[in-house]
């Protein structure tokens, strides 16, 4: 099992698919990495030599922000918005949709399970 950027990538999958298991690398980035290093996209990870795995690892370390660093950057950006108390930061803080979606109905993913409100007594 090849270990790249702290992630064990599956050995029986194609290189492009296996690279997408790394947080921060999608299909387009994976294709660009394989193309840059001259690795055939149809090859499986188990067919790669140790030198090729090392090349992939070095390319990702040099050119991409992945895994822990990316998660930390994202969290710091959200925290910065919350500290500024801008509209987006307040929406993050209150657990509401940030990008203008309606909340009268829907928005259950952000708001959580519906809480019953005490009804009118008869």
From TrEMBL:
What keywords are assigned to this protein? Ribonucleoprotein, Ribosomal protein, RNA-binding, rRNA-binding, tRNA-binding
Which SUPFAM superfamilies does this entry report, sorted A to Z? S13-like H2TH domain
One GO location term (cellular component): cytosol
Q: Does the keyword rRNA processing apply?
A: no
Q: Does the keyword Secreted apply?
A: no
Provide one Gene Ontology biological process annotation: translation
- An MF annotation (GO) of this entry: tRNA binding
Pfam families xrefs: Ribosomal_S13
Where do the segments described as Disordered lie? 95-122
Q: Name the residue ranges with Basic residues bias.
A: 101-122
Q: Which family does it belong to?
A: Belongs to the universal ribosomal protein uS13 family.
Quaternary structure and partners: Part of the 30S ribosomal subunit. Forms a loose heterodimer with protein S19. Forms two bridges to the 50S subunit in the 70S ribosome.
Q: What does this protein do?
A: Located at the top of the head of the 30S subunit, it contacts several helices of the 16S rRNA. In the 70S ribosome it contacts the 23S rRNA (bridge B1a) and protein L5 of the 50S subunit (bridge B1b), connecting the 2 subunits; these bridges are implicated in subunit movement. Contacts the tRNAs in the A and P-sites.
Listed PANTHER family: 30S RIBOSOMAL PROTEIN S13/40S RIBOSOMAL PROTEIN S18, SMALL RIBOSOMAL SUBUNIT PROTEIN US13M
Protein name as it appears in the record: Small ribosomal subunit protein uS13
């Amino acid at each position: 099992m090849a270990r790249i950027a702290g992630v064990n990538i599956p050995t029986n999958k194609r290189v492009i698919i296996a690279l997408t298991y790394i947080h921060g690398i999608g299909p387009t980035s994976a294709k660009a990495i394989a193309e840059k290093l001259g690795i055939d996209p149809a090859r499986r990870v188990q067919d790669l030599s140790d030198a090729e795995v090392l090349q992939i690892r070095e390319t990702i370390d040099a050119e991409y922000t992945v895994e822990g660093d990316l998660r930390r950057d994202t969290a710091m950006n959200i925290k910065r918005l919350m500290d500024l108390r801008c509209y987006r930061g307040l929406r993050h803080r209150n657990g509401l949709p940030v990008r203008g979606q309606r909340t009268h109905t829907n928005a259950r993913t952000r708001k959580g399970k519906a809480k019953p409100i005490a009804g009118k007594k008869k």
